[in-house]
Specification:
Layout (H helix, E strand, L loop, with lengths): L2 H7 L3 H12 L45 H4 L16 H11 L32 H4 L11 E3 L55 H4 L19 E3 L11 H7 L4 H6 L19 H4 L34 H11 L20 H4 L7
Antiparallel strand pairs: 1-2
Helix pairs in contact: 1-2
């Protein structure tokens, strides 16, 4: 053993671990490093998704219409034939036998898709999403995002009343409390979400099946799930929504956090203060299967001017804010917008202002 190696053995553990290796490997041929193995991302079997390629089978391959428990899933007066339960185990075992019998405690992760505890003495399942409010009242619904969007052809239902499907959500009505959560004392003119801002949409099949059922034979029938339920497409367009602001306000309920991030025009518009404005004045039924969320600014004018008038002196808020922006380039339009207010004024806005009468 040479003096360097001998001296190496007398040093501290850290010096030994590094220095000795250097001395003892002098002259050795360098070893080639093996390329890192690219491992596929681990599948989270506790979160089922209809959007994976393996799960894009026909609905009837897993779901049975109606479910066996449809008479018990709702109160007797409200019960109707529907898919009200998760698929039976046999629908999953064909592909996921390994996950079903995995040695995981307290239960295999895949069981968490349907079962609350998945214990031998407790087989309670979560309420199925089609049950609407009873499902949304559970912890499971807090971060629930459906794998589907509903392709509802509004243009084929023009004879129906919009209020049949859409009601004002969390209305203030005669209450003195106008905000959804308590605002700061010095709120001033700053934005804070108010009650009655959003409209609801159907959460169950009840309204649909009143016309589309086996007796009426009006297509699509209840078992034709994919006629209405299309694969969900994430929101890619720019919306007038500020998630940090929503967090500061303390908004947590499922419906608000589904509707608000999809506001494509005015994130601050409040439906409850416009009870006499016909829905069709702002929302145009389109052939893509949904009402157009992009509300044209001209609809804010109305027959009596409302928010868009010929001159600033006539009281139009759009006129006022455009006028202020022309004076000050950093002026933020806050009457209607949350994040759009600091962006350049689109051509549609000054174009919506009528010319003063001569």
């Amino acid at each position: 053993m040479g003096p360097l190696a001998s001296n190496c053995l007398t040093k501290g553990a850290l010096w030994l671990a590094v220095g000795c290796v250097v001395v003892l490997t002098v002259g050795a041929s360098p070893q080639r490093r093996r390329p890192a193995v690219q491992r596929a991302p681990r599948v989270d079997y506790s979160r089922y998704s209809h959007l994976t390629e393996q799960h894009r089978a026909t609905c009837s391959s897993c779901h049975t219409f109606p479910s066996r428990n449809w008479k018990d899933a709702r109160k007797s007066d409200d019960a109707f034939p529907d898919v009200t339960e998760f698929p039976e185990h046999k629908a999953c075992l064909g592909c996921h036998r390994q996950q079903f019998f995995a040695r995981e405690r307290p239960a295999p992760r895949i069981c968490a898709n349907c079962h609350v505890k998945a214990a031998p003495n407790d087989t309670t399942r979560y309420p199925f999403p089609s049950l609407g409010e009873s499902f949304l009242a559970t912890v499971r619904a807090r971060d629930f995002i459906s794998d589907f969007r509903v392709a509802f052809p509004h243009e084929k239902h023009t004879d129906a009343d919009c209020a049949d499907c859409h009601q004002t959500y969390q209305p203030q009505d005669k209450s003195d409390d106008e905000f959804v959560t308590k605002p700061p004392k010095d709120i001033g003119d700053a934005f804070w979400l108010k009650k009655g801002t959003f409209k609801t949409r159907p959460l169950t099949h009840a309204g649909c099946f009143s016309c589309h059922n086996q007796e009426s034979e009006v297509p699509p029938l209840p078992q034709n799930c994919d006629s209405c339920h299309k694969p969900y497409a994430p929101v890619t367009h720019v919306t007038d929504f500020d998630r940090k602001l929503a967090t500061s306000i303390g908004v947590q309920d499922w419906w608000t956090m589904m509707a608000w991030p999809r506001r494509t025009s005015s994130g601050a518009f409040r439906h409850e203060t416009h009870p006499d404005v016909p829905c069709a004045q702002c929302h145009q039924a389109v052939t893509t299967g949904a009402a157009d969320r992009r509300v044209p600014v001209k609809s804010c004018g109305g027959a009596e001017g409302c928010h868009v008038t010929a001159t600033v002196d006539d009281g139009g808020i759009l006129n006022y804010e455009i006028d202020e922006r022309s004076k000050n380039s950093v002026f933020v339009c806050t009457k209607c917008h949350l994040v759009f207010g600091s962006k350049p004024v689109p051509a549609s806005h000054p174009g919506a202002i009528p010319k003063p009468a001569k």
